[in-house]
């Protein structure tokens, strides 16, 4: 029988399991991502616990042990318990009574196998008790871990119809954990049922896409998405994976960290109208919208042989991130390594503040109103052309 080695998260979480098992021994197990990642040698971020106890018994047991309890998903049997400052999601074993492709009506059960049958992938349906002993109710989870393959629990189409977001999760997990080609049955089901993604909230779709694009090597998974029509279902105006493939290659060659935002932009590069439409449709945050829209709309002159002074001028006008994003995508597209110098200057330079303000001009007799603004703009242009070397007195002398 497989067993998890003692790990810090496992040791810390035993106190929660112990509290639950004061009610019924053997009633609680770790489940899902913490077990999967521990077996794959990946970092464990969140620790989820499945239990045969109903939520009221979970709450009572944990409060008796001095832990705080929060009903974060009580309609699905989920409580968040905070123990020693760390949160744990504890969910009662359940089975689906009814699903509509987005949400499910559930009932509680004591059957571990029944709980496993409603999960998405076999590697996510692995349970571990407090001693680390692994339980594999589907009979395929451990094999999938060993082969690093993503296989739906039971019938792939059934699992997808329960929640169409599982289509994107299939490709995201393939990007992060898959070694071989995607499971044929799962891939075919994703392609067949891709229209169901239209009923999923755009916020959930964007969250999954960001996670997928953050994978070290997402290309094979994205190619599979493209092959079965899922990418086109989501982003009909995407320009294909050519520039994204070059960007991933540049990242790998130069040791750049994966940048999911820039990778996403590569799908629509130089199509400002589409980028604006897509960022609005996905209801991105203002910060995300600006990150994607500004480089696409910016027309500041920029080329691979630009001087350092011209780079500084561009950074002053549009910001370092916009210059870096434009330069990186141009570098990936052209293969010209001179863009590295542009990026280096943009990263290193700290944008200064114009040493002259309205009060200085008023003191020199400039009339209050539009004349102040016009004078400031003229002095700012002179200051930029000097490569930001002119001081306050020198600028005021130009009046």
Short description:
This protein is an alpha+beta fold and 399 residues long. 51% of the residues lie in helices and 11% in strands. The chain has four domains: 1-147, Beta Polymerase, domain 2 (2-Layer Sandwich), CATH 3.30.460.10; 154-234, cca-adding enzyme, domain 2 (Orthogonal Bundle), CATH 1.10.3090.10; 238-351, no CATH class; 358-397, no CATH class.
Q: Count the strands? A: 9
What is the number of independent domains?
4
How many DSSP helices?
A: 21
* Helical content (DSSP H or I, runs of 4+): 40-55%
Shape: elongated
Instruction: Specify the CATH homologous superfamily of the largest domain.
Output: Beta Polymerase, domain 2
Highest-level CATH class of the largest domain: Alpha Beta
CATH topology of the largest domain: Beta Polymerase, domain 2
The portion of residues forming beta strands comes to 5-15%
Architecture of the largest domain, according to CATH? Answer: 2-Layer Sandwich
Question: Span between N and C termini?
Answer: 83 Å
Reading side by side through the largest sheet, how are the strands ordered? 3-4-5-2-1-8-9
Main sheet properties: 7 strands, mixed
